[in-house]
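[job 4471] stage=fold_predict status=RUNNING
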Amino acid sequence: MSDSEDLKQQEVDEYADWDLFIPLVADDADSAGFRIKDAPGGESERVFITGYDRRNATAVRGRLFHVVHGVIGNGSNKPATLIVFEWLFVPGRLGHRFREVNIDVTFAPRGSRPGRMPGADMSGYTPEVKAVAPNVPIKSYFASRDVTKETGKKAGLTLGYAPYASFSPEVSGKTTEVTARTDYRFVAGYPAFVNKTWGEPNSVHWTLQENSSQESGTPHLLRTAVLVQRQAGDYGMFSAAIDTSVNVSVLVDAAEALRKLVKLVPNDDPVSFDPKPVKDDQ
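[job 4471] inference complete, writing C-alpha cells
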C-alpha cells in the first residue's frame, strides 16, 4: 500500500454513521464551547442528544434511537413514553480503553400546563421512571482466578521465675487460604432521585464496568430504554437532561475534570419531548 493510500485510509472515520459524540480531551479551546443545541425556535425529540461534533476523539457518542408515546395499559389511563437510547464508545486515535462509563438521564416538566399560572411550581408534573432496561446486571467476559492469602501466627510461652530468670520460646506458623474468584464486566441500570426527595424517581442511571483483571474494556455499543409515566391527562412537554462520565486513564480523566472545572465543557440542551396526540387530518 502506498503512503497516499495509507493516509486516505487514516482519514476515513469508521464511525461516520454516528453524528455526535462527547470528547474527553480538548484539542483546542476555540471550539471547545460548541455543543449540541436545539434548533432555533425549539425542537422536539432531537436525534443527536449530546456531545461535540468532532472526530477522532476518545468519546461517548449517543443518539435518540426510538420514542413511543401512549398509555401504561392494564386499565390505567396515565400517559407514558417509552424512550430508547443508543450509545457508542469510541476509543479515539490513541485507542483508549473505557474502564467505566456512567450515563444519567434526568426528566423534568417543560413549558406551561392548562390552568397553571406562569412561574407556578411544576414539580407535580415531573415524569416518573417506571421501568429501566437493562436493569439487573448483565454480566459477560468471565475470567476465573485463584486468590492466595497467607496469615502468620505466633504463640509464646513464658517459663521460669521473672525477674530472676525466664525463657519465652515462640512458635510461629502460616496458614494459606486459596479462594476461587470470578471477574466479569457488567452493565446495569436503576431509577434514581435527582434534586427530588419525594414521590417516584425522576432519573435513570446506567453504569458499565470492565473486567479489570483482564483489562477487557466496556462493551463498545449499548442500547438502553426507560419508560416514564405522567399524570392522567398530562400531555404537556417534558425534557431529559443527559450527563455522562467515564474512567479512561488518570491523565485523560484529570484533563476532562479540569475542563469541566474551568467551564470549558458547557451543558447540552436537554432533549424535549412533546407527547401531545396528533390529530388525524383524514
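[job 4471] summary: Residues 250-261 form the longest helix (12 residues).
[job 4471] exit 0
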